[in-house]
Amino acid sequence: MLYIIVAILIFGLLIATHELGHFATAKLLGVKVNEFAVGMGPAFFKKQKGETLYSLRVLPIGGYCAMEGEDDDSADPRSFGRAAGWKKLIILCAGAGMNFLTGLLVLLVLYAPAVGFYQETYGGPLEGYGVEDCGLLPGDRFLSVDGHRVLVNGNAQFFLSRAGDTVDFVVERNGEVVELKDVYLPYQERTDAEGNYTRLRGLSVQRVAQPAGALDKLAYACRSALDMVRTTWISLGDLVTGAVGLRELSGPVGIVDMMTQVGSQSETLFDAAWSMGYLAALIAVNLAVMNLLPLPALDGGRVFFLLVNSVLYGLARRKIDPRYEGYVHMAGLAALLCLSAVVMMSDIGKLFGR
After folding, report:
1. Which one from 19, 35, 68, 120 is the annotated catalytic residue?
2. CATH number belonging to the domain at 116-211, selected among 2.30.42.10, 3.90.180.10, 3.40.50.2000, 2.40.10.220
């Protein structure tokens, strides 16, 4: 129960942090904010300070920043709708930016105690695959696999498992960068020594520990955050191509359940805190990417209309009627709510089917 409560609070805090990004930039840029709320549902605390009502609400699952003229036409000169285009762009992107910075900050805290990080190197060919003449030499450190940079430990194996029959490598060998093009590594159905299914195509990937100073920890945290962004895009691509189905998606119920499992299955309290913290960083970065998708009702959808209006105004001195934009966002919101309901039912089904 403790981990469930912590997971709910973390998830709610990440969403509230997103709204805090909108709130802070709106205030900074002079846009009127009518209410800033932490939580959802009925309010149990309210305080009016200046033009803004601050409230705490009973359900710790998010929050909102209600700006004047955000969803309707307001005559107030400080309304969101009457703000300059660059101000709107900053305010709309600030929520995702705050999520990304939150994820990065969590990663910095998690990696602060680290004394070193693993790097992936080539350990030599595996027997029976016929890849002895692949061009790689034992000790080569993977910098890029199949066109994807190796940012953190695990990237080399991951992208090698997804590559086709020919793979491009960039490695560091004796302090020099070496490029290997179109290395032929045909896929074979094999299992590793433990009986696990593998697609490494006969290449042994080893981990070599390297000591880390303060700057190394900062760099690794930044690379980890960027890798999370890339992983999110890859997952979205797999969803679009059908490589994964809707059942693989998780909503708030699934995320809370996942964090609860990770916490309760950890051997020590420190391990639980670290694992839940890492998941929190991953979710924060996920929220940043997802909210910037050019879909109606999301921040990215509003940014898309903002850019389209800028182009239309520059070409024909016309803009899309705000009413029609509002209808599109309403339809998008309805679609997102329906998708959320489907995902929630799927998550609940997974719980009861476990």
Report:
1. 19
2. 2.30.42.10
